[in-house]
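Please, why this fold?
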Amino acid sequence: MNTKQKIFLSIIFSIAAILCPAQEYVSKVWSPDLGNGKYKNPVIYADYSDPDVCQAGDDYYMTASSFGCVPGLPVLHSKDLVNWTIVSYALQELEPTVFFDKPQHGNGVYAPCIRYHNGEFYIYWGDPDFGIYVVKTKDPAGEWEKPVLVKSGKGLIDPSPLFDDDGKAYLVHAWAGSRSRINSVLTVSEMNPEGTKVVGKEIIVFDGLADRNHTVEGAKFYKRNGYYYIFAPAGGVKRGWQLALRSRHILGPYEQRVVLEQGTSPINGPHQGAWVDTKTGESWFLHFQDQEAYGRVIHLQPIEWINDWPEMGKEKNGKREPVLTYKKPDVGTVYPKINPIESDEFDKPELGLQWQWHANPKDPWAMPTNLGFLRLYAIPYPENYSNLWDVPNLLLQKFPAEEFMATTKLIFSAIGKEEKTGLLIMGLDYSYLSINHTIDGYTLSQVVCRNAEKKTEETIIASEPVQTNVVWLRVKVSKNAVCEFSYSTDGKKYVSIGKPFNARAGRWIGAKVGLFALNPNERGNLGYADFDWFRIEKE
């Protein structure tokens, strides 16, 4: 090929890249869009706990609880409520930073609420140890401002604002009994018009202990046709139901109705989520379902407004229960399939948005490169180390489907003995497949730790010597979260190792899969692992 031909082809490829941008990520293991005008639930088969959604023009934005995982407050985007992708995080680190520089399992960001108001996006959340915060931006896919403490206090959780027609602003929230010693009540207080500070006293507007609606929490504030609405779950995560409360007055009294429950469906505890409309006049509700090791996965339900009550899902035997498949929302346009990203080729000088740490990240835990790999340094064990429960530098992502296979290729450049790196399934119980640097060379080991939060010791299930520091590690996750590890030294033939492991959820989060590198030596240079890629695929 001569120079003129090369230049011509270069111009053609450049034009093609502009006219036909790179295809968005479509999962190989779970895509809810059936391609025939219908969708199947869950619309996101991953742990986006306590979801909330707002609408801005033709765009929908979702956020969810992130607890002690960092970055926090994931922001997802959709055009049709079925196809979603991750676009940013509202929190690059958790505050107070000294507290969250160490793993804080089950603490941190609880049940956020996202709203679009006066050209800005707001996310409110409760931290049960410190109070209610808000963060805002004009570009939800860009940077978010520094968090503002709206109200300090213990046990304040699950807030939702309402910017009323008269310019006043209000906040409803629930209470965590573990900190405040009260629960199952919802309170409303007035804020300043900017929504950045509570200025009024707490007023109880609903008491779930007065009837069957114990564990009422996760409230979302709305207004429609002259009614104030509070959507709130009750009954607990695994077996609860969705309430709608309404009143002509913001402080009540509120009528109540159960508008979604399991009924005869296989969807347990369908509740806690968001009401949004399409520009064609349809109403929809996004909520979670607790699936234990898989976390709280996201479902989409149609809403019928009947006598000013939001009846969700479908009617059966006098109850409203979830749909499993349904026609897609009418948003005026058919959009292509897109799913939250899972695989990462590590070919950019930044981590993919699927990754989170177990605490505020530090240099040099991970160093993305422009060289086609991600470098993880073997960081020393934290003080008083017992197992991975206390380790902050775990680079993890959510389980993306009921069944999937995760594979990674790495080169381990160890320096000190007993350094290790590998592929991890993390939860209250955990297991990993690691390559270890020993005095005799390299070994591959499957390790299991049960009841990790109780500081239990790890158990080596199997260990085999290898004659190379270049390995491919794989875990296959089957139904009921059964995990089986294997490895390869050539990228072609994989050898099973160890025993099947049943993944278990973490504290308020589902099990996660990902990478780590550790070093038991207090002194000396750090060894490192260069990860070529990480891929989520079908078996």
